[in-house]
Amino acid sequence: MRFKFDCVFYYVSDLERAVRFYSDVLGLTLLSKDVVARFDIDGVLFELVPTTDKRKLPGDGNARLCLCVDDMAKTLEELKTNGVLTSEAQTKGTGVLSSLQDLDGNEICLWEYRRT
């Protein structure tokens, strides 16, 4: 048996609203949209999958979308300007970590590597 990587995905309750958040607020590049929306994040396929099953919102699994940022303070300020609530930035060993939630409560982590 051989597996190939396909994608990372989050369930969302409103695909159009979620696409606007991920493209307009987070600045991700929308590749295509039909029954799901597909984004490219540095060559990784990230999808938004609509569902009416409220038990899937937000996902309570252990996986998280983690986005690398160059400047945590600047990123958090830009998100705040766009009305996005974030956690306080925390120093964690080799970097700085913060998080936010999309409109369906899916957690998105932000990570800035420390420059040494």
List keywords for this structure.
116 residues, alpha/beta, 2,3-Dihydroxybiphenyl 1,2-Dioxygenase, domain 1, four-stranded mixed beta sheet, 2 helices, 8 strands, 18% helix, 37% strand, globular
**Strand percent estimate:** 35-45%
SSE sequence, one letter per element: EHEEEEHEEE
Silhouette: globular
Poorly predicted sequence stretches spanning 5 or more consecutive residues: none
Main-sheet strand order equals: 1-4-3-2
- The structural class is alpha/beta
Helix content, binned percent: 10-25%
Instruction: Write the CATH architecture name.
Output: Roll
Domain module count? 1
CATH structural fold name: 2,3-Dihydroxybiphenyl 1,2-Dioxygenase, domain 1
Number of helices: 2
Number of strands: 8
Q: Radius of gyration in whole Å, from Cα?
A: 15 Å
List the SSEs and their pairings:
Blueprint: E1 8-12, H1 15-25, E2 29-33, E3 37-41, E4 44-50, E5 65-68, H2 72-81, E6 90-92, E7 95-101, E8 107-113
Parallel strand pairs: 1-4, 5-8
Antiparallel strand pairs: 2-3, 3-4, 6-7, 7-8
